[in-house]
Write a structure and sequence with these properties.
This protein has a single domain, classed as Immunoglobulins (Immunoglobulin-like), CATH 2.60.40. α1 runs antiparallel to α3. The chain has 3 helices and 12 strands, in the order αβββββββαβββββα. The two termini are about 25 Å apart. Keywords: Membrane, Transmembrane, Transmembrane helix. It comes from Lithocarpus litseifolius. Its main location: membrane.
């Protein structure tokens, strides 16, 4: 009879430990990472000083989208691109929409598009030395495919400044990562907090 309190305590501790491991496994299985977005190619013929005709207001842009999730596909809604002539977004130069699509796990996708920008703003954005700096924003919503079901939509809003040289190309050969103002660390902390709360409620109910 004297061993009963200790046995009950060990049973409770074992239950809590098992429940914690189960919760951790579920979190690792259901955790999702947003796709990573890059600008691989950015070219404005109208800013190329080596060309005779500088009235071309077309932008050629290539995006690269990477799904780093090991076992989760991604459904993209329509991807909306917005272009500004300065980093402070003082003037809207143009918009473009890429149709939604599905991307498998650990897959990469590229989209090469041509966008017509406002000609007057394009000339005004150019510095005396022929260079310019633009702002590119990307907005969409994604759903993650986990086995046979899909998650709810998660908003994805990222962007970056793009420096262009006097040949109309981005100043650096390296691809440009589009970043979000939201912290990934905060998102993961929120997920963990929600999971821990659920575990506590289950335990109290038990």
């Amino acid at each position: 009879m004297a061993d009963q309190p200790g046995g009950c305590c060990r049973c409770c501790c074992s239950f809590i430990f098992t429940l914690g491991l189960t919760a951790l496994f579920m979190w690792l299985s259901l955790r999702t990472d947003n796709p990573t977005c890059y600008i691989q190619y950015f070219y404005l013929p109208g800013l190329n000083t080596t060309l005779k005709n500088s009235t071309n207001n077309t932008l050629v842009i290539e995006l690269k989208l990477e799904n780093g999730n090991k076992d989760k596909g991604i459904y993209y809604d329509a991807i909306n691109l917005t272009f500004y002539d300065f980093p402070n977004k003082s003037h809207l130069m143009g918009n473009y929409t890429i149709p939604g699509f599905y991307q498998g796990h650990k897959k990469k996708a590229t989209r090469l598009e041509s966008v017509e920008l406002k000609k007057t703003l394009l000339s005004e954005a150019t510095y005396p030395n022929g260079t310019a700096t633009f702002r590119v924003d990307l907005a969409t919503a994604v759903r993650f495919k986990i086995m046979a079901w899909k998650t709810k939509r998660h908003k994805l809003d990222v962007g970056s400044d793009v420096e262009v040289n006097n040949q109309g190309s981005k100043s650096y050969d390296k691809k440009i990562k589009l970043r979000s103002g939201a912290s990934e660390h905060k998102r993961y902390c929120a997920q963990i907090a929600a999971l821990v709360s659920s575990v506590v409620l289950v335990f109290l109910g038990f």
